[in-house]
Amino acid sequence: MYRYVELGDGADATIVDDTLACLDHARPLDAFDTPRVLDDNTYELAFDAWPLARDHILEHWNWHADKANLEPKVPKVLARAAEIVRANPPSGVELEASDRAVDTLQAPYPERILRTFRTVLGATDDPAEQAEHVLRVIRELGLQPYEAPEPLPEITDDDVHLVCWLALVQATSESRDSTGAEKDAEAARRRAALDEMTRDAEDLGLYD
User: Which candidate in 2, 90, 149, 158 could, as Cys together with 22 as Cys, close a disulfide (CB 3.0–4.6 Å)?
Assistant: First the structure.
């Protein structure tokens, strides 16, 4: 698990936990031509950064260890659709199938699916017809009852180990000209690098 910790002068630390963003920060723009710099102050700050990163990882992990946090938050349109099916089971449909449809609706589906249910519910004011439309959408989209992920085992800070770390320092005036144009170009290169890594991750199926 990656963490990027930015320690400001007297300000609260900024912690980034997105893997691609962390890798983008750790990727030097000048590759192997980037000067290696690690002064005593930066070295000491690493000892301040590690507890922050460790505690952030611990909090994030244990959030996923609480089963209550993993229960789906059902959007209003799906809660309404489930109530309609529950109160108006279509004729010719077995009770087990209706119950399964209600269970299927108890899930955090993406917006495109929510729009489909809004459309069919708005197509008629007849609850019986609405229930039939809802079951039809479930069949056509192949939706299945939602299964919440298994909670992670709870851990303590003793379970979080540092594998490696990298310190980043601002370029000095001798090593880099910090003009506005230079900063804009650097930001553009970082955005391009992050976009490239995002596309690679999508190609590998790491993002849905």
Answer: 2
